[in-house]
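Do me a favour: review this protein, sequence plus structure tokens, and tell me how the chain folds. Record follows.
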Amino acid sequence: MPFADELLAALGQAFAGRAVPRVKALHLPPVPWTGSRDGEFGALELDSGALGLSYLLLDDTLATIGDAGAAVRGESALDVARWWAKAAAPAGASGGAARAALGFAAVNALTRELFDRAGFVPPAAIDSIGGLHPSPGEHIGMVGFFPPLVKQVTARGARLTVLELRADLAGARETFAITLDPADLAGCTQVLSTSTVLLNHTLEGVLAACRSARHVALVGPGAGCLPDGLFARGVTLLGGSWVVDAAAFKQALATGAPWGGSARKFALTRANYPGWQALLAVADKP
């Protein structure tokens, strides 16, 4: 079963027999994009107060998500989540990327809702590179170009290959190389990937390309979904953003201010995550 279908099935079971939360609001950064990382993400809020983040810079998402978001208020969050899983618009159709982003934000919000019901708070991340420990000469892979993180890898003497979608970035640099070919990740022993591979459904291809890696970390503010299916597929760490002050977060997002102070980075692994079924059992206790 594809990851998206498996994830939606799990969320469906988690909310079976109970009122599914509905969408309360969509929170967006100022448009046009100012170039800041904080302006790359939006958040969907449920009527319970749970927030789910999603990346906004794929295709025409930022330009069209306002109109798409206006129509989701009051809708079942599970129905909106299916927009991501089921490709609601044909490839290339205007607004399709925005609907996918809304759907994935709903997935993340429903996950947060379940975690909150179970009283589960993910542990804090110990670093910004997904728990990677590069060694001199080791071949490290990076999916998505993270300029601030490149030095953390290359400074340890590791060889770095970055997989990108943007052809204008491809080529060799002094201490690393950027490629458009997933096959170039085949020899990597550790891989750090943007969580955008979840949003755009390229996860399976990325994992196939780096199947020999002993450590695969998916990180980013949008990495807020149930990780069970990811761990089953070889991902070893999921690192996202946990909003700790919703009011401050929403205010900062709307004004274009940095919102990092109202959220913290977390890291989930097989060792510290009990599984969604165990969380549901706790949430359902009287």
